[in-house]
Structures are given as C-alpha cells and as structure tokens.
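Supplementary Note 3. Input sequence used for the single-chain structure prediction.
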Amino acid sequence: MKIKFKQISKRFYLIIIIICIFVFFIFLKRKVNFDYIGSFFSNLQKNISMKVFYIKDSFTASKYIKDYKKNIDNLNKEYIRLAIENHMIKAENEKLKRLLKLSEQNKIKKFIKSYANVIGANEDGFVYNYLIDKGEKDNIKVGDGVVAKEGVVGVVNKVFFDTSVVLLLTDAKCKISVRIERNKKAGILAGKGYNLCELEYISKEEDVINGDILLTSGLSMSFPEGLPVGKIISIDKKTEKLTMEIKVKPFVNVSSVQEIYIVSK
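The predicted structure, written as discrete structure tokens, is reproduced below.
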C-alpha cells in the first residue's frame, strides 16, 4: 500500500509540475500575443491617422485649387475689361488728336460750327450719304459743309432735331464749287459714285494736267476758300462736248470717315 501511495504521489507531483509548466507557457504565450496585438493596433492607428490627414490635406488642397482658379478667372476678366477700356481710351485720344489737328488749321478754325460723329450710312450697297449725331438743336442747317481731316466730305442736305443727313461729294446730286490750286481756274465738282468725282465746265483749251490739286473756291456758303477736295487722275479731251472730261479722286475715303466737322461761311 505504501509503495502504491508513493507511486500515486509521484504521479500527482508530476502532473502538478506538468500543469505548472503548461500554465507558465500559456501565460508566456499570452504575453507575446498582447505585445503583437498592441503593435498591430498601434500600426493600425498610425495608418488610420495618416489616411485621415491625407484626406484632410486633399480636401484643403482641392479647395485651395478651386479658390486659385476662381482668382485667376477673376483676374483674367479684369485684365480683359482693362484692356478694352485702354483700347477705347487710346482710340478716343487718337480721334481727339485728329480733330484738334483739323480745328487748329487757320483756314478752317473760325468756320467750324460743330463736331459730329458718323452714326450711319445708306444701305443700298454704296455709301452716298451719312447720318451724323448732330441736328437742329446744335444749330446745324441744310447747306452746311462737312469736312474731315483729309478734306471735304460733303454737304448737309437734311436736318432733324438731333441728327442730320450728309450728302457725300461722290453722290451725283452733290455739286460744289472748286478751283485748281496751280492756276486758280474755277469749276464745278460733281459726284460720279464709286469714290470718284468729275470736274465740269472746263473747256478743252484750259491748262489742266493730271495730278492737279482741287481746293474749295469759297464762292458758295458751304465752305471757306482753300479746303482740300481731291486730285485730278484722268483727262479726256477727245469727247464730242466742248468741255473736257476730267476725273477726280477725292482726298477723303468716304467708306472710312468716322469724325467730322460741320462748317459754314
């Protein structure tokens, strides 16, 4: 019995030792797992934080880019507006310079009644008359002369309250008194259309050559004497008429006039 008891006791102690060793390894193993789990959660938290900051930074960057683009658009619009205004100011300055140069000419200065802008033209495909932005309220009258910086443009033939119609010197109904600058020979200039005129009532015996300059004669109430009108470009003496056929090119290009002066004697 005693031997048997000893054998049981040894077995019991052995079992206890095995259990203790097993428990020890269990606790050891649990410690390793806790460290691993702690490391895992630490890395997870770090990754989550990085993602959160990345998203936040991306949102901030996106908002910054949108604001930047908006500012660029606003600056572009402002630049375009200023560029247009600058162009308009330059154009107005150039216009005023041209008008000032014209108004300072001694031969015309005292005859100027008003400055005007061309605001329209006839719509039949050929420019034979202008509509200007001055009328009866500006003391404009039928028969007043119209000049640009290059020379004579035409004559006022209709007047309304705040606008007037200008008959251009190239129109067949327009006739003005002129003289040849070189020899003072007088004649009547009549419109022929297509930016051309004809000098009438000059006999074949008269001294006329290509290139002669025509000026206003001062014999009408529309223009003072000596304003430039045009240049003779062709002469035909071989006609059946008693007078020559003389073609004249006006100094003013009637299709490009924008600013004019109204004059009268």
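Residues 107-263 form a domain with the Thrombin, subunit H fold (CATH 2.40.10.340). Residues 45 and 232 are 97 Å apart (CA to CA).
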